[in-house]
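ligand=molybdate ion
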Amino acid sequence: MTTKRNVYLNMKPLDEARQILFDHFPAVGTMAAETVSPPDAVGRILAKPVTAKVSSPNFHAAAMDGVAVKAEDTFGASETRPKELQVGSQARFLNTGHVMPPDTDAVIMIENIQMVGDDRIRIEAPAFPWQHVRKMGEDIVATELLYPRGHMVSPYCVGALISGGIYDVPVRRKPRVLIIPTGSELVDWRTTAPESLKPGQVLETNAYVLEKMIAACGGHATRHERVMDDLALIRQTVADAVAGDFDMVMTIGGSSAGSEDYALPVLQDLGEMLVHGVTIMPGKPVLLGDIQGKPFFGIPGYPVSAIIALEQFVQPLIRRMLGAADEPRRTVAVVPTRKIASKLGVEEFLRVKLGQVGENIVATPLPRGAGMITSITEADGIIRIPSHSEGIKDSDSVQAELLRPLSAIRNTIVVVGSHDNTLDVLADQLRAGDAALTLSSSHVGSMGGLMAVKRGVCHLAGAHLLDTQTGEYNRSYIQRYLPDKPVKRVNLVMRDQGLIIPKGNPKRIRGIEDLGREDIVFINRQGGSGTRILLDYRLEQIGLSPEKINGYSNEEFTHMNVAVAVLGGAADAGLGIYAAARALGLDFIPVVTEQYDLIIPEAHFKSGNIQVLLETITTDIFKQRVEALGGYSTENTGNVFE
Ligand SMILES: Nc1nc2c(c(=O)[nH]1)N[C@H]1C(S)=C(S)[C@@H](COP(=O)(O)OP(=O)(O)OC[C@H]3O[C@@H](n4cnc5c(N)ncnc54)[C@H](O)[C@@H]3O)O[C@H]1N2
Ligand code: MOO
């Protein structure tokens, strides 16, 4: 094993790095042509201009059911002076699509004629020439251009291609790409049961994601099995791929500066490095190179970094090789829900949730870790914060690239505040309903939710704020923090908070009163959290002083982290919701039932989407699903407080 580490030689801004790549591979439309059938051409790029071989229709055709006539013979007909025509010579019955008989140039619809005996018809209006006739070549004229080269064939195009007699469609061959995931920690999902995953093992995902993304832009990718962190092995795999019939090769992982990051040494051994390191985030350590005239990419291992690197470099290069146009994403002006700091000197691809609240489309930032695939799967858009900017203010209107259509974003209810698992049930039920609404929730704590209501950047907030003076939830906080904001408060659920303890309760804890025992170590929540307020309130009620509790000053920030501390043996008990205990197979002693409400500004309360939400939470199916989670009660669900 080598201990030599790579250093980023010369980080380039995104535009410059792209230019270096495109200049080095001036590959526009270089893929050879091949022919495929019209249906198989869908999604492919035309290698040549396509001109029609035949006209469509290739004869004059009746466009309506009725009689074919010579327009001239009908001139002068009116209601007061109807005309009669002889069937067989002056008028011939035919149906939509039939060939027009010789010497006819118009069709009169069947409903506009009267029979006179067996062989004459009466009309009360003249026909004008070519009325209700689809003339030869009306749709497509033989020899005319159907599509220029570089056009992407759509399902609609198949109709025009076949009608125009193009049965062999010239398209560019798909660039063949080999994807080589590297990393000794990677395991194959097909041979690894999820329960058997050991610490240190990571399910290989990127090769699958990239394979589909390459297919989406017109390439064809092959996934190599994962290669261990072994310089010689990776080098051999890359060398074989380049010598074979792949047009492009990429490794995933090992692109940065770790002692086992081999993408750069492999490239240096086999070819020429063009760029190592781009001032973007995620995606910084991407490596661009040339091995024997073929593009080589060292794609960073973090899932979002891999996706961004692919979108910024690989997909555009593939489109160029195919001679296809670039497909910039639509952008829309959005207002961030809070101010967002960003590092100077790097262009950040910030993933955001979007929703239309009042006049504005508001953007809530998602977690920024490049290792979090959900930060991009949950995203509706991407805000690109330029490298010269230290971030964006919450009042700034900025552009976001859209990952979902605007119509879907307008159909989204934005809820901000404390997290609760029943919101997931609600999201699912809302989507299954006739309106197919999306619930987009951001978890910033109860107070964060109230502040979002105050600033008008959400449709509603979820909160469970206990007033220790009165024992009431939320009301006094609303009075205090939202004095000028008329809101309605609707109960979503009552939920159990309780002691999360090890399976089997080895220390025979009975309740909060036991937290003062000398043999028990507690794990606390951070000051200001709803749960901490609750604990302190409860301790005061039973007259147990915090100093008596071992571990009272050890704080965690989430219910799950409290449960993890208990599971790992760092603590014997912590206060949290039942769902967290259940997720880790721990035991739970209910302590109090707390109230979780939805706080809805009057301005939104009457809106159709909110009314659907309020109906949904009172349905039996919603309540049953919530009760089935355990630790919840729906006795007050849907109750409205002014
Ligand atoms: N000292 C420094 N460390 C790191 C830097 C740096 O500048 N200095 N850059 C960080 C950045 S930014 C990124 S991005 C990562 C990417 O580095 P690598 O390309 O070397 O990626 P790995 O270390 O191999 O893997 C990172 C992470 O992703 C997981 N992974 C890798 N491949 C796959 C795959 N095919 N499917 C699923 N997951 C994968 C891997 O297990 C790691 O957890 O480096 C930072 N470090
Ligand atoms: O820049 Mo790395 O690609 O964020 O995680």
